[in-house]
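Handout, section B. The chain below has 266 residues.
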Amino acid sequence: MMVLSIINFHLSAILLVIRVLCIGNSFSWDAVEQELVPLCDAQGVEVEIHNLYYGGCSLAQHADFMMRDTAAYSHRVCTNAQARLVKDTLSLRQALRITDFDYISFQQASHDSGIRNTYEPWLSLLIDSVRAYQPRARLCWMQTWAYSRDAKHPDYPRYHCNQQEMWDSIVSCTEAVKQQHPSLLLIPCGEAIQNARRTKLGDTLCRDGYHLNYVYGRYTASCVWYEILTGKDVRKNPYRNAQMTECQRLLTQKAAHKACRHSAHP
């Protein structure tokens, strides 16, 4: 009986899967679809990541899709067995019926991320709607990042094409979200990217001025997700993608860990 109990305990541990739903856009694509599963694999963490992708999608657009039950999203699934699988287009309501999710994240479109009046009432509407379908899920806020200093995004002039101004605006909006919705779990990807920019990596984490580069930009954001989801110190994770140097791994992991510790202990 003792042996069976031990076997059952280990089987239950093996079968425990962290299930995540991102109500997102290309920034969630950057943050969770490439590097999060390998980071989890390296420490034996089973994950099932569902990313609802609609390019440039704002909170207002997500809320409209929710109310109209519009099948607008590309449904991307990443698991330990299957790194990335693009499934059929579906609606947010359909996605919320797939399974019982452990974590569900919201985020603002990058161009609106520092504009306070673009958040409400849409975020509150989304939170209330999602909770009706997934009352036990932990709801999260994924903080996005400021653009590169030389970005050519058409909406960058809203921030006077100034990275620090954009970042300060994002921080201000993040604080407003935390105050209005204190139960949301913060996923500080933006802070991690800004931390990494202050290292010898400099302002090189984006590939086009706003989307993260495939080598250590995406890795930095996924390190934040890994630490938040697992509670494990990402600096102890040995994984790095084949194009990264060991120095880049250490710098980006440190940047992500610092952001996670700051969000937990302001």
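Note. The chain has one domain: 17-264. Compare this with the example in section A.
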